[in-house]
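QA checklist item 7 of 12: single-chain prediction sanity check.
[x] sequence parsed
[x] length recorded as 318
[x] structure emitted
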Amino acid sequence: MILLTGGAGFIGSNILAACNARGRDDVIVVDDLRDGAKCANLAGRVFADYLDVDELLDGLDGLPRLTAVIHQGACVDTTARDGRAVMQANYTFSKRMLALARRHGCPLVYASSAAVYGDGGAGFREEQACERALTPYAFSKWAFDQFIRRELVAGRAGDVAIVGLRYFNVYGPGEAHKGRMASVAWHAFQAARRGEPPQLFAGSDGFVRDFIAVADVAAVNLFFLDEAAAGRNHSGIYNVGTGAPRSFGDLGRIVAAVTGGPAPVTIPFPDDLRGQYQAYTCADVSRLRAAGWTRPFTSLEDGIAAYWKALGGRMTGG
């Protein structure tokens, strides 16, 4: 049985879909559905059970034998300022999921973030010298990565695989509930459906990001579970990006081409993002490739076209 936290969320629901595509429904989905919009991400999915986060924490001793823990649940608001709440959600809870995986002797694959690299001035390698968290969200992800590193160095993981995945700019179906935190692609699609031009920050041709399709992210998660099941322990932290960054301007023009909508326009850069905005990201995927990941990543053109198709490929409607 697989325990999937954040299973109704953006990336988690796509991992569940990838499991279903393999014919697997032995998944316990864990989430917090106070935001009922996330229920749409579970519609049509098949899973063994659903647990609220509080139900999970109250019933850890009563869980069936787990074969894996995929931990995607987190506070994902990169602009959140309540550091205490963010740490409880992203650091303390993650430690409990690690303890759970150890108790069951099963692999833990968890979501980290490229936000740990800050402005990216020191590079995007999975090394402490490159890590400069600028926000509570980024710090919470970095702090858990540091905890995992200490555990691995001390040999306390034993034979259990512990894999942290640093996601870069993920886009794709299932993110509608995220509102402001949804990808630029999603916001651009909504503008196109209204017959309006996508809005990009001034200077967007100079803002370059490593955009990765959510289907690729889900596939990387399952790859590490497959490797663990085959007895290949790749414990460590890995970047999950394409290594081929593109500008927000490119993204806006691709959306316009795919939808047939108007070309993007620029708006002033928001004051609340100054000093915290990653103007450039590019995943160094050397470690991921060295672990055996050989598949090509989806191009931005193909990914945006597939996303538009998944949304219904229409200019009007929900």
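[x] summary fact logged: The chain has two domains: 2-167+214-240, 170-210+243-281+298-310.
[ ] second reviewer sign-off
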